[in-house]
Write a structure and sequence with these properties.
The protein is an alpha/beta fold. The protein is built from 3 helices and 3 strands. It has a single domain, classed as NAD(P)-binding Rossmann-like Domain (Rossmann fold), CATH 3.40.50. It has a 3-stranded parallel sheet, covered by helices on one side. The two termini are 20 Å apart.
């Protein structure tokens, strides 16, 4: 199974990529600052239980490391 991590996943190009990869059966790690938007996106994707949403600011190294752990 393909696993894909997408930053900026809560809107725009990131959300479009998430929809595309999910339609191809990938398990997604969705990263963005807005948890509510991430959860809404995750729940709208096929096989929602395969995906994880991480509310994190990717410019904060400590927060990013914690999300990756």
């Amino acid at each position: 199974m393909m696993r894909v991590f997408i930053t900026g996943a809560s809107s725009g190009i990131g959300a479009a990529l998430a929809r595309q990869y999910a339609s191809q059966g990938a398990a997604l790690g969705l990263l963005a600052r807005r948890r509510d938007a991430l959860e809404q996106l995750k729940d709208s994707l096929p096989n929602a239980s395969l995906h994880q949403a991480y509310a994190v600011d990717v410019t904060d190294r400590a927060a990013l490391a914690a999300a990756a752990a």
